Structure of Adenylate/guanylate cyclase domain-containing protein:
Amino acid sequence: MRVQRSFAFVDLAGFSSLTATEGDERAVAVLVGFRGVLREVCARRGVRIAKWLGDGAMLVSVEPAALVQTVLELVHATAAAHLPTPMTCGATTGAVLLLEGDDYVGHAVNVAARLCDLAGPEEVLAERQLAPAVPRWGEAVPLPPLEVRGLATPLDVVRLRLRPTGPEAQPDPVCGLPLVSATAAAVRQDAVGRPVLLCSASCLETWEGRPAPTPEEQGSLRSPFIGS
């Protein structure tokens, strides 16, 4: 069965060196932290972790935009977590064969894996056809055609990254991505009337579904901004 999907491979650069220099226990602790970030971001954005690959993973999404948002947030989140092994990522989209209901075989899968191998620390390399899926808070930077092992012709690729922001940026209260009004997908108000910038429908849904403060907590000196 042939299906249209978007794929990303993510990996921790330098993980083998970390294991050799700091020991297995330290490496496992880093990996557990990385997988925790990955699970939380993918669950919120509706992207499936198709398989774990040691210190990396293969991600699959029906919607290209969800995949792009996920990998951009992952770069930001892993950097914010100060992991000693920065994330690398390769992403693409295309028609592939669905094998035995939960595996994928095809050119797009191979290309995403190769791009992950070529990406540098905190870098997302993607085929150009994913550029239209980039959100307003991200950007696709064109790169020269890229020679990829196993492919006869160079790939047309872009580097996906967060759009630079100035000191006026404020973090999305759910994912922490820096936003300004022009790059936010939604703007709401908190409990005291301040603007809240949200990056996507998924973060908006999470923010609106947060537990409401009790009457005792609302406006108390102990937690004056609970619910904001």
Summary: Confidence is low (pLDDT under 50) at residues 220-228.
